[in-house]
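[scheduler] slot 2 assigned
[scheduler] job type: sequence-to-structure, two independent chains
[scheduler] chain ordering preserved from manifest
[runner] begin chain α
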Amino acid sequence: MVSAKMFLDGGLNLGMAARRLGSRVGTAAKEELRSKKAVWRDSLMAAAFRAIADRIPFADLLVEVRDARIPLSSECQILGNYEASLRRIIALNKMDLAGSSNLKAWMEYFRERNCISCGVNAHNKESIKQLLSLIQRQVSKLKGANQCDNNYTATVMLIGIPNVGKSALTNALHQVGRISAAEKGKLKHATVSPEPGETKDIRSFKIGSHPNIYVLDTPAILSPKVPNVDVLSKLILTGAIADFLVRKKDVAQFFLSIHNCSEQYKKWEKLSMKDNERLFLNGTTEQLTTSELRMRQKNQIPTDHTQDPIVQDVRRTLFETISSFGGDISCEDEMETLIALQFTALQEAFHVSIECKEDAHDKVAGKLLNLFRTGRLGHYILDHLPRNIQ
């Protein structure tokens, strides 16, 4: 049986093999950047960085949006001078991909550093209401001498690195804020895309009245300095940086090494049973006829890896490959052996042709990364807390 360990209070405790594979991804990306075949940040991002820096002093409140899966690695370096301030909120977006229970230790970590933080899911209305309420409370504290001025206007600036969900949060805050304030008029929409770097300029959206509160959606920015290989590998894995610096297969191998170190696969044990066995265990005597099984298969689109039956097959495949592996995954060579077995097995689960092995592995990698990045393969926090919290 595979030996797997998980750091339950705030993130995964990666083994040496997983760290080495992550280091390979980060190192390959840095080498690509040094070779001048790729650009860390273009002139537009550099200009956006300067424009945002110029506007920060005039904003009443700063909301730094981070990826909840990488609470430290997704830090926006431009806000270093606002580490402990009433003017700053750290919004850990995509909490649905990290798991709300896993974020508790991180919330305590930021609280001990006098940082206001909250977990948020841009696609959950109740979560957005909680973030909006927090923003309104902080604005009230900052209002000070203008407490009785109904015309008081506050500006909230959303800042973050690429693909942390700033525009999705902006749209959600704009919609929920307008409804709660009974505002009339046409809704505006910030551009939302799964690809990083789609927001090109700074736009204003009203999210509250009495006092008036406007949120500024800003372009994604990266620090002028390329981060270390550990941070770089996590930014690539979570999609903060587009897949152009390294091969998708290498990134997918890094994900599998992380997954294999977690306890996630154990949740999918029942998926390794046959359909009729699962139905029996679930308390039903329903038996699927041959024609019913064929109908289910007919309704599937083999090339669409996001369909539930295919996702279930992928989960089952991951469970069976890990649980049946007899090696020690703390050993780098044996971890790579397991990952090679998983790639071969996943080709069948994803219905990928095996005519060309390299092309097949690239297709498997792309589909696997998509399922990870959309939360279909479990909840993960990839950063490790700097120290234990008592």
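[runner] end chain α
[runner] begin chain β
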Amino acid sequence: MAMQLKPFTLYLGQSQPRNLNFPNKHKIITCCSVRDSVSNTQNHKLVHQFNPKIPIEEAVTPPTSWYTDPSFFHLELDRVFYTGWQVVGSTEQIKDALDFFTGRLGDVEFVVCRDESGKVRAFHNVCRHHASLLASGSGQKSCFVCPYHGWTYGLNGALLKATRISGMRDFNLKDFGLIPIKVATWGPFVLINLEKESLSLNEVDSHNVASEWLGSCSEILSTNGVDSSLSYVCRREYTIECNWKVFCDNYLDGGYHVPYAHKGLASGLKLDSYSISMFERVSIQSCESNSGKSKENYDRLGRKPIYAFIYPNFMINRYGPWMDTNLVLPLGPNKCQVVFDYYLDHSLKDDKDYIENSLQDSEIVQIEDIVLCEGVQKGLQSPAYRVGRYAPRVEQAMHHFHCLLYENLTK
């Protein structure tokens, strides 16, 4: 089943800062800006300590400052996460009218909902009165009521009621609706775009959004079983004491660590068949399963599992009847959250024993990876380490990731 992309564009206006006391409805708050000029100069030096033009055979990895420096972390938020399309959730979370879920990306609090007509919308999850968060968690709501002073907003973002405002001058309800965010769905994924600039609805189409997010990989992924036909199983979340890039690097080492850290997983794979393909903003790793092993392993892993990394922080793992996704959310220079969503072939959605056993196997791998990543972060903070090297035959995708980061950070 091929995926259908459904874009939704909400008017953001121009990118000039908004006057908070007397807002102009044709302008918005500039939510993301690089910090002061001193940190800009410092960050410029840190970025250029990595050279993407050096071939992988001679290159060194980014320096430890990329993984530990607080000002560099804020630069990444501005240049990497506040630009372009970012996955924030699953369509399962908003499958019905009035469904909503909330989240945080860097300093941006957001809420995604499906309004009464079935249209998907996204907003900054901040009351326009005194900045209280409006909603939390997920569920169903017919409107958003601020828990602080009761200001009430429709699922279309309009301010419906402002309490106890008698005597307030120059106030118009229409000027104080929720600040919208561009949102789209692709397959089972929900994406938002925090770019300051906005396009009108007739300037955004499926091809443009798919091209921006996946480039030439959209058809490759859809023909390899990444689609909406799978049944949603569950979500698991892990808070890890490491920089978000450490988790990504671990994923992108071309199976280098698998025989050493994941012996159970390695037993079901033919690691000598590992292959890596790179595209504009995507890398795909694949490996044949070990058909000589038990039928259980073969059924879970499938004939040829694929592992797709979509820059900057989203992974899709498709194997056998399973698909799971890893969303890596930066929480600070030394901390991230990884959100796992599991999907399964519809024919197996009621097989509780099979699901439980497969999830247990997955949990083992995740715990093993957490131990690795937290150990790496501690090593990165040691004065004994500054830069490393790439294993050219297996770590091409990691090098590709670092080059894409450099490109974003120097724009």
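[runner] end chain β
[qc] chain β: Residues 352-380 form the longest helix (29 residues).
[scheduler] slot 2 released
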